[in-house]
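Our consortium's second objective concerns turning raw sequence data into structural hypotheses that experimental partners can test. To show how far this objective has progressed, the report includes one record in full. It was chosen at random from the queue rather than selected for favorable results. The single chain below, 270 residues long, was entered without modification.
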Amino acid sequence: MATIRTILVDDEPLAIEGLEVRLKAFKDIEVVATCPNGRKAIEVTRKKKPDLIFLDIQMPGFDGFDVIRSLIGDFMPLVVFVTAFDQYALKAFEAHALDYLLKPVDDALLRRTIQRARKAIQQRRIIDQNAKLVNLIESMEDPPKVILSAILEDPEGVAPKDVYEHHLNIKDRGRITRVDVSEIEYIDAAGDYMCIHTPGKTHILRATMKEMDKRLDPKMFQRVHRSAIVNLDRVKELVSHANGEYFLFLEGGDRVKVSRSYKNVIGRFL
């Protein structure tokens, strides 16, 4: 069983000590660092690049949510919030936390969290391995298209079926909208935010392109530009352009350019 490199973050030393003792029951959990505050957690996470972080919410200075905001666009481990307060559950859900545990942590719930972490980390590793393989093949002067196609189209070769999101939860003025991913036509980047385009409406989500690549099924969604992802099921027409570029015309009437760096996507339509 692969080791799960873990960081514990809490401003209460006894809370860290107690959690560290209980995690010793899980042979694959390796606590690589403990942090007494949010600022230290950001520094250590960027340096150690752990798989998992148990993160307190209420801490002086940088709280748990400040830590998450600081890591967006950088290395982001799986996050389990551990807190004595239940009013943060919705906010933790919006931050895409793996789990939310209340102090004192129940042993059965901790076991459930570790099981979820194992599954999520295994799925991440499968995706990362295949992404590296795809990048290697695409970097070849004459890539073997059959192999590349198999990796992109075989769901078992990319990741287990349930790793990808079926809905995106988008907060807007205190309200959370659940967007069915099949309704998304395309996504483009606007600074630190993603514009999620659906028929008749654009939703704004704080995330990175790299995060969206991992959350969406590559059988349906493909990056076509450094700052654009397209739902291939929503493509109505493909038109070639100068310099080896293409334009995809979508069902909603929008047009998205396919840059030369991502022209392998065109093979999906030929």
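The partners drew two points from this record. The first strand starts at residue 4 and ends at 9. The chain has two domains: 4-120, 164-269. Both points have been shared with the crystallography group to help prioritize constructs.
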